[in-house]
Amino acid sequence: MESSVSIEMAKHVLLSFGIILAAGSFSGLLAQKARVPDVVIFLLVGMLLGPEAAGLVNIRAESALNQIILIFGSCYILFDGGATLRLRVLKEVWITIVVIATVGVLIMTAVTGIVAFYVLKVPFIIALLLGATIASTDPATLVPIFKQVKIKDRVSQTVMSESAFNDAMGAIVTFAVLAVAMGSGEFSVSSALVDLLKQSFLGILAGGVLGYIAAFLIAHEKYNFLSEYAPVVTLMAVIGAYLGADGLQASGFMAVFVFGIVLGNKDSFGFRMENGEEEKLEEYVLTTAFIMRMFIFMLLGSQVDFKLMNQYLAGGVVIVTVFMLIARPLTVFVCALPDRRAKWGLNELLFMCWTRETGVIPAALAGLLIGLKAPGSQMIASVTFIAILMTILIQATTTKWLAGRLGLLIED
Description:
Layout: H1 2-34, H2 38-49, H3 64-84, H4 87-120, H5 124-134, H6 139-148, H7 153-181, H8 189-219, H9 230-247, H10 252-264, H11 275-302, H12 306-311, H13 313-336, H14 346-354, H15 360-371, H16 377-405
Helix pairs in contact: 1-2, 1-11, 2-11, 3-6, 3-7, 3-9, 3-10, 3-11, 4-5, 4-7, 4-13, 5-7, 5-16, 6-7, 7-8, 8-9, 8-10, 9-10, 13-14, 13-16, 15-16
């Protein structure tokens, strides 16, 4: 009996995967024709396919399968994003990235928490927990957008790097506030700072070491005996970077992103692949990242709880509107404007103010809060999904238009 149940479950998963792949392929084509980022269409189609609508895809958010897809998919998209960054650009804007990924998260948390306190009439610590949950930007959303919409290098790479580096800060602040909300601890600035530095250092170290090893094995002049298996090496290294950093209690996402940066800049370390092998690897990474994007956002859309979201819809829309139009611009100008090294122009700052989609990382944090039965977790999950829908549907679809208006678009 157990084996038959397992077989039926396996068939259900295979059917769901087939539906996602079929619907995702047509959605990608539609997004291309409509000239909008494909994550927008994936999210909308996922909502239509989910149990709240057609009921064709029903993979629960708390299931191990869903978590595997979210973790690995986000990791691979991050790796792909890191591989597109160039060290010469990062050297110019690293101060802005560090400040906006740390101090910026605190500003977003504080402003959003204050607004939620007055709008939702919840205890301030719960409002602050909501602010911390949605404060970090989402690399799984932003990396694909900048892959499809060609923006001036230093702007796109700053926003992508911020989204990769601020997940550690977002998680630290969220769980620090949670400890206070549940009466199990007090927030300590010094301990939070030490924890952030530890997570960042170990994550960068793990990603850097694995990136160098992978580049050595696939692109060294003498010892590149795995050059033909470069795609498999990237898969192993992405998983190894995430799990290795996580085992060291560091940021796995940061490790994967740094791994991508090192491998993408392998020429700087004296490693060079043959043209045929390089093209094969790039094609594989591009295809795999597309599939991961498809699964992540269609599943995310299918898991939207419309009844729960409707309960906090009015207040959530107000909070997210302030979040987008006040909290984010304040964060960008406070964190980036003083960076004299980068010398940001007003058009660049305005673009960064608008581009900060919410997605997988905040959704994962909201899911963890529900699992921990944190106070206000249902409300936080609802507002988080409102933030995901509003930022992706409004900001992602207008990215190309705004970049064109601000003179930041690179025409093909």
